[in-house]
Amino acid sequence: MSFQPITHLRHVDLAVPDFERQRAFYGTTWGLTEIADDSGIAFFAAEGSPEQYVVRIRADRRKRMDLVAFGAVSPGAVDELAVRLGRSGVQLVHEPRALDTPGGGYGLRFFDPDGRVVEVSADVGTRAHRKIEEREAVPVRLSHCVVNSRNPEGLRDFYVRHLGFRLTDTLYSTHMGDLMYFLRCSPLHHSFAIARGPHVSLHHASFEMRGVEEYMRGTGRALRAGTRLTWGPGRHLAGDNTFSYFHDPHGNTVEYTTELAVLEEDLWHPGRYDVDDPVTQDQWGTADPMSESVAKEQFNDPDVLFEAPPV
């Protein structure tokens, strides 16, 4: 069996100039729970998730995605990953060590080929979480993270080779070639995906709701708060999940979703979906048709590359 150290997506960390505005958005409008803060850093948990936090916000004069974090099966897997990355010439941000973020744990950080920081950790303490009640429109967990890349094929191969991700499905266009690769580290359709974009950046971070009722109520709450809806509500074909894409106060795309497909991995064969078929983008037909202007909403600003965040 190939080396498959990754168990799940842990958190997405963002740096922003207007810290308090971003903090208020995630804690009030988006429905996350602030669990800790320390000198311009705030940590937000999803009430239904045992993860210590799913979003970290840090004050910085430059907007950027600080890192994306994944869970590992064991400390031994973290150590083995560090050795394998070193042998392949991958630049480490730091060697495996004890972590001082909420929940602690043992992890390493490295740069992927695009220059974004990736954290992989094990033995992180879990958080007391609870069942999300019917019609309670707060995120259950962080569902998935999608990034933009100018070389999505190369980045896909990196995550498959080094982190053991498996390709689930591909979006393509007859005119532009492959546009998005969905990657999984568990039976969930995808925890990570790579989109073709004009520069390296965060495409979107997605948050799972309890069900369709809660998903729609969360969408409505965000709209009533004046949050900019960029696409949706609708239901994708690949993954079979619902989508409502919004912009946070700094232009990062965040998504409410639910009912992401759970696969029978032994029977699954990767599919290819043509984005020019409107059903591929939205089975319901309720969202605006995919267009160049809609696609540009998820390009985001160019990220800070090959520079580790201070914390």
Automatic annotation (TrEMBL):
Disordered as annotated region, ranges: 284-311
Cited InterPro entries: Glyas_Bleomycin-R_OHBP_Dase, Glyas_Fos-R_dOase_dom, GlyoxalaseI/FosfomycinResist, VOC_core
VOC domain segment(s): 8-123, 141-259
Protein name stated in the entry: VOC family protein
